[in-house]
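Page 42, continued from yesterday. The earlier attempt failed because a stray header line got pasted into the input along with the sequence. Redoing it now with the clean sequence only.
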Amino acid sequence: MKKHTSGLKALLPALMLSVLLSSCVSTGNDASNVSFQPYHPQKASDTDPQLQVARDAYNRGDYVKTMDTLIELADGGNANAMFSLGSMYEHGDGIHPDLQQAVNYYQKAIQLGNQDAQFNLALMYLNGKGVAKDEAKAFDMLKQLADQGNAEAMYKVSQMILGGIGTQTKLQPALDYLKRSYQKGYAPAASALGYLYLIGNSV
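This time it went through. Structure tokens are written below.
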């Protein structure tokens, strides 16, 4: 029994990485990133009704009105509008994709503390999309978000630590970030932890 437990622990990093990858959902945890969201009703820090105007225009397919509204807000210093423009340019939502414009708007939003923009730009560095691929920079950007309490970033950081992507592979820090993500209520982290407890009760 002791030999079996030892063998399981030796395989745990690879097993955890497999579990984490299989638990990814389309909310920005793997190749995907945070999707276009011109209005964030859950964020009381930004209640500008013009963001609702942009969302309504986007939902009815009026991309000219959406862009005009967001550009006006972004020019006035609205970080959520900057993020939304970055996302539209990155994904080609109603406009031709322009990765350089996406990077520019994300960088402006990040300077004003927008976490969604930092998450998306980090994944662009991770994948070499519109910028030179830089896994270490991507890791640092995501770790900064994780240390600020961003549950999605915590989950992504745990993946990267286990995979040795942009950083060294270390089991305990990966577990710590995974547990913190779970404590924040992030569903994929809960699924991954539950499975790990089920297969070995070793975390």
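Notes: The longest helix spans residues 2-22.
Reminder to self: strip header lines before submitting.
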